[in-house]
Write a structure and sequence with these properties.
The chain is an alpha/beta fold. It contains 18 helices and 19 strands.
């Protein structure tokens, strides 16, 4: 017991004896006088959670810029080229002034630090809340539009986050299972700088299926910064003497909150090896049916309709009622389908029922008409890109055909989510055919309670509930009926209206 107590005291003493601010100066250096201004007004991007995308590129590397444009052009994203600062053009006098006496960085590395800080200060001065910084040596693995969803999820997990690395950690050449070791920990820190042990910095922790909490890594090829993160980075670099590379020194910022994507969106094209999971994701032939029938995986398309009340309601139902098997009637491109699948347990399944031909409304809508010829292929591609092929089972048929199929297979489900045809007759028919296929204690729910001039969905739900002596609940456009053991048709069908 005494030995344990002494060991505990030593650990506590070690933890509290480290002053991670020991190398931070009490005054601001003149580093910001070497920052570069962004000329003109940067274009705002289409992503909801990103104000601006900056791509850092040297004027001397036009071929890299052309390559980046080629990689980004299929996604129709608005981004801004930031002309990087070329440190190799510094005079020796200027270079020595910036780096100081003990810094061993090259002119090029100093230029890299100043380029990134220039972008961050530009964004901070423009009051941007979140920015995405890209370097010009990237490959794109998955749709950049996934960033919006990831930021929403990260905000829920940690509203105080600073950095989100959306790229793959640089890997050890010849062994993709091993990360490139950050050697700066043992030899790259300042003489007056107190640091943790190397094992502390190399530790990673998965905090969800999407995110990993990190303390140090190599590379800054694709990073999202929050406004809090921008402020911390700018303050830090204006109050220290430059010593090591930008992508390493940021990890020494006190209380910096850093995360990485477990399944990255971007990789560095000069030194990367894709993980096994992503290799399978891209190899169509290895996917389960019907995903393996795709001729090619289309770019991710996040189009769809899925309200906040629906999302919150479904998440609550899944968690509180331990839902495992869901049928979704009407899936479109899978926005709600994928949300449901992501919140189910690992062995959960979503049967996505849709003929993927579109309705009359869709055919008359110019905004979505162009999606119709490849609607099904786009749905499959979206599910592949989200790595949910094991959870989502597409049934390409009508809701009536699907109900008969489910009945013949003798299956009962935990939850049915109705969002298919919106006319009163079709909604009533879907409820009539699917309610008997729900387990006792299960749920029938749906979208668009307030949709349409004559409120056809609302009329159908009220009528079906009245005819079968059921109660319903409504939250905005989201409606719910719980199946109880007392489900007996007690009334003769007649209209309420």
């Amino acid at each position: 017991m005494k030995v344990f107590f002494l060991f505990f005291i030593s650990l506590t003493t070690y933890a509290f004896s480290i002053n991670l601010e020991s190398h931070i100066l009490p005054y601001e250096t003149d580093l910001s006088t070497f920052f570069k201004c962004f000329l003109g007004e940067p274009a705002i991007c289409e992503l909801e959670n990103i104000d601006c995308i900056y791509v850092i590129n040297l004027d001397e590397r036009k071929e890299k810029w052309n390559n980046t444009v080629e990689k980004l052009s299929p996604y129709a994203l608005t981004y801004n080229r930031f002309p990087a600062i070329c440190g190799w053009k510094f005079s020796d006098e200027k270079f020595n002034h910036i780096k100081g006496k003990k810094c061993l960085l090259s002119k090029g590395k100093i230029g890299c630090i100043l380029s990134h800080l220039s972008v961050i200060e530009d964004a901070y001065d423009r009051n941007f809340q979140n920015i995405w910084i890209l370097q010009d040596d990237i490959e794109i693995l998955r749709s950049p539009f996934l960033i919006d969803e990831y930021i929403d999820r990260l905000n829920e997990l940690d509203p105080e986050w600073d950095l989100l690395f959306t790229d793959l950690d640089m890997r050890k050449p010849g062994d993709s299972s091993k990360l490139l070791r950050a050697t700066c920990i043992t030899g790259g820190f300042r003489g007056d700088q107190e640091v943790h042990k190397e094992s502390w910095y190399l530790k990673r922790k998965n905090i969800s299926d999407d995110f990993q909490k990190i303390r140090m890594r190599y590379g800054f090829h694709s990073v999202v910064l929050s406004r809090k993160g921008m402020k911390k980075i700018l303050y830090y670099f204006k109050h220290v003497k430059l010593h090591t590379c930008f992508d390493i020194d940021i990890h020494f910022i006190p209380n910096i909150r850093e995360y990485g994507l477990i399944n990255p969106i971007i990789v560095n094209d000069s030194n990367w090896l894709i993980s096994d999971s992503l290799s399978k994701l891209i190899e169509i032939k290895n996917l389960p049916s019907p995903y393996n029938e795709l001729k090619n995986i289309m770019l991710f398309n996040h189009h769809g309709w899925f309200g906040e009340n629906n999302a919150k309601g479904l998440k609550t139902l899944i968690e509180q009622r331990r839902i495992k098997t869901v049928v979704e009637l009407g899936s479109w491109l899978g926005k709600s389908t994928m949300y449901i699948a992501e919140h189910l347990p690992e062995d959960g399944k979503v049967y996505a029922v849709d003929h993927w031909l579109g309705s009359r409304v869709h055919h008359n809508n110019k905004a979505v008409k162009n999606l119709l010829p490849t609607l099904y292929e786009q749905f499959l591609s979206n599910v592949v890109q989200k790595n949910l092929t094991e959870k989502i089972i597409p049934w390409k048929m009508t809701t009536v055909e699907a109900a008969k199929k489910m009945s013949l297979e003798g299956k009962l489900v935990d939850l049915v989510y109705i969002d298919a045809a919106h006319d009163e007759e079709s909604v009533y028919q879907d409820m009539s055919m699917w309610y008997p296929l729900i387990k006792e204690g299960g749920v029938m729910c749906g979208d668009d309670w307030g949709w349409g001039k004559n409120l056809p969905v609302q009329r159908a739900v009220k009528q079906y509930a009245f005819d079968n002596n059921l109660k319903y609940k409504v939250y905005g456009n989201f409606w719910i009926i719980f199946k109880t053991k007392s489900f007996i048709v007690k009334r003769h069908k007649r209209s309420l209206f």
